[in-house]
Write a structure and sequence with these properties.
Blueprint (H helix, E strand, L loop, with lengths): L2 H10 L4 E7 L5 H14 L3 E5 L10 H12 L4 H12 L5 E4 L2 H7 L1 H10 L4 E3 L9 H10 L2 E3 L1 E2 L5 H10 L4 E4 L15 H9 L6 E4 L5 H8 L4 E4 L1 H8 L4 H21 L1
Parallel strand pairs: 1-2, 1-9, 2-3, 3-4, 4-5, 6-7, 7-8, 8-9
Helix pairs in contact: 2-4, 2-12, 3-11, 6-7, 10-12, 11-12
């Protein structure tokens, strides 16, 4: 299933799609795969597999801590691809979220080919813009991989239009200025940013805004095509030394989030 298919299905159900993020290799490679399967079973429509990186400048402390544990555990790009393969086998669209440096080191053509072979749907590139991403765009287009770029409240209308035109799958609206992380309230910048983006594209717009509860998910789902949740899900695993308890907490939160996007 493609990312577009997941958004189309959610739209047909008159709701937003729920996009869940976890880093590969956390708490272990196999443990991470199990956790992502929990996300699928509990109601996520799309899974983001994070590629742990040693210099995560846009990530908050929660995701940084999980990525560091994964790196200390020896996770490699091949483990990320194995994770993608296992999660995509569930039939749920699976994309990789990564800084650009690891892809460049791996080799852009090689990464695109291996991601497609693993059943991955595409790539989210937070620090790569369309006007500097010609090599990735060509490699992705050759394999029909989704290209998800980011827009922000500070983006000009011209830049939003250019970025949205280059996206396939969805546009990632990062509506919190600063690093990632769960927040007590959602940003009042998110709604206007989504409206500005939807005005120039028919591609779905999904919002990453620090959502951590079903109520917040419902609030964002009222105006966005997709709700992206990362830090709150990672925190479920960080807060429990027992992996089974962590997965149980993950299932409860994901179910709450899924109910939220459905009642918006």
């Amino acid at each position: 299933m493609t990312v577009s298919t997941a958004f189309d299905k959610a739209r047909a159900d008159q709701r937003a799609a729920l996009v869940g993020y976890l880093p590969a290799g956390f708490p272990t490679v196999d443990g991470g795969i199990e956790a992502m399967r929990v996300l699928v079973d509990a109601g996520c429509d799309v899974i983001e597999v994070g590629l742990p990186y040693s210099d995560p400048v846009m990530d908050g402390p929660t995701i940084q801590a999980a990525a560091q544990r994964a790196l200390e555990g020896g996770v490699r790009t091949r483990d990320v691809l194995r994770t993608v393969e296992a999660v995509a086998a569930t039939g749920t669209p699976t994309v990789v979220m990564t800084y650009w440096n690891p892809v460049g080191r791996y080799g852009v053509e090689r990464f695109a080919a291996d991601l497609a072979s693993a059943g991955g749907s595409g790539l989210i590139t937070p620090d790569l813009t369309p006007d500097s991403g010609a090599e990735w765009i060509a490699a992705a287009d050759a394999r029909d991989l989704d290209k998800v770029f980011l827009v922000a409240p500070s983006s000009t209308d011209e830049r939003i239009a250019m970025t949205a035109a280059a996206c396939r799958g969805f546009v990632y609206a990062t509506a919190v200025m600063g690093v990632t992380g769960a927040r007590a309230t959602t940003s009042d910048l998110a709604g206007p940013l989504v409206a500005r983006t939807q005005a120039v594209t028919a591609t779905p717009v999904a919002v990453g805004v620090g959502v951590s509860t079903g109520g917040q998910a419902a609030e964002v789902a009222a105006y966005a095509d997709g709700v992206i949740v990362g830090s709150a899900l990672v925190r479920c695993l960080l807060d429990h030394d027992d992996p089974a308890q962590g997965r149980a907490a993950l299932a409860r939160l994901t179910d709450d989030l899924a109910r939220g996007v459905r009642r918006a």
